[in-house]
Amino acid sequence: MSSSPLGTKMMPSLEASSKMTRSAGLWIVCGAAIGLMFGFGPLFFSVAGVFLKPMAATFGWGRSDVAVLPMFSLIGTTLGAPAVGFLADRLGWSKVVAGSIALLAVSLVALAVAPANHAYFAAVGFLIGFLGSGTTPAGYLGVLPRVFDKRLGMALGFAMIGTGVGGFFAPIAANRLGPMMDWRHWFGASALVVLVLGFVAHRLMFRNLPEQKYFAADARAAASVDPGLTLGEAVRGYRFWLLAIVMFLISSAILGGFVHLAPFVSDRGLGHDVGAQAAGFVGAGLAIARVGLGAVLDRVFAPFVACAAFFVGAVGFAIFLTGAAHVPALIILAALLLGISTGSEGDLIPFLARKYFGNRSFGSIYGCLFGAATLGGAAGPFLYGLAFDRLGSYALVHEVSLVACVVGAAAILLLGRYPAMKAAGE
């Protein structure tokens, strides 16, 4: 577990080099939080389930026909996240995030006018995920490691609150507004909200950056000043693949367990109210993880934090596998633990990417790791459903998820010490 021989000089962030005021840093974080609150996740993905039945009724389709919309959107995000990072390293984060905001709005309008065509539905779902990737953490959080150093964990944690707040209120708003607007009106209105508030968030972030050269388009200039590895160098090392595989496994296990939490609780005869409370406590766990772990990351070695967070998820699955799964209070506790475990990923991926690979090709590397986690989030619920359909029980898939969390907790420690880095060409 020795440090990697990458050099000894680490170029300071804007925070460390005293080129940014405290108030400017606060506005940058607020901008990221607002952008995440009114981006792809809350305004599309979190409400897709709310409109599943109305969409099916509009076209006379089955629910599985409509379910391809969120499924293909996740596939689009999985591929779009690396593209966002790749383009940001070359065009600058400002241009890529702004372009993604505009293209997501256009894609939502395309959904609002969708005809009864399965191919069109799948294609627009993919485009929403792919073109809107810059409005996910892959876009907004990618800026923060270039700005913060000592307070990076805290900045990431507070920015991620936006996803939690938006994800909580958007489905409620969609449900309450149901009598006044159908799904077409919702997505049409959402396009306007994305465009207006997305650009408010964009200006809050980029107008408060004291040096735009950190986000400029010239890749060769960036390579000459930024320390760290290129994407090609990163993928030739074990750390990149270790992180990608661990994040895929943890995301698959935890999100699969979360999506199927309500039917699992119902199978135990505990009632819909317990399932609803458990889902709410998953959200509480997410909030705790995103703020609490962010602060801890600034003070504690990140792989230790990741190990603890993943082990917490394993404890949640252990509760599901015992007689405790018949006790409402313990089910809610397990849900809280799952929320803490999955909420940690949002902070951990950009933090670990910067610490182990540096800033030189941070966008590309972070985008690929975020894509791996997104792919896991898409695969997990499907695999859970497949396991239940074949076996008539969640027991085996919960066992596999527990093992995945334990293996992930142990494997993350193999990352070793943070490597020292130097600027290219030194």
UniProtKB/TrEMBL annotation:
Pfam families: MFS_1 (PF07690). SUPFAM superfamilies: MFS general substrate transporter. Keywords: Membrane, Transmembrane, Transmembrane helix. InterPro entries: MFS, MFS_dom, MFS_trans_sf, Proton-linked_MCT. Coiled coil: none annotated. It comes from the Bacteria. It comes from Paraburkholderia youngii. The chain crosses the membrane at residues 24-47, 67-88, 95-114, 120-143, 155-174, 186-206, 240-262, 274-293, 300-321, 327-353, 365-387, 393-415. The keyword Transmembrane applies. PROSITE patterns: MFS. This is MFS transporter. Residues 27-422 form the Major facilitator superfamily (MFS) profile domain.
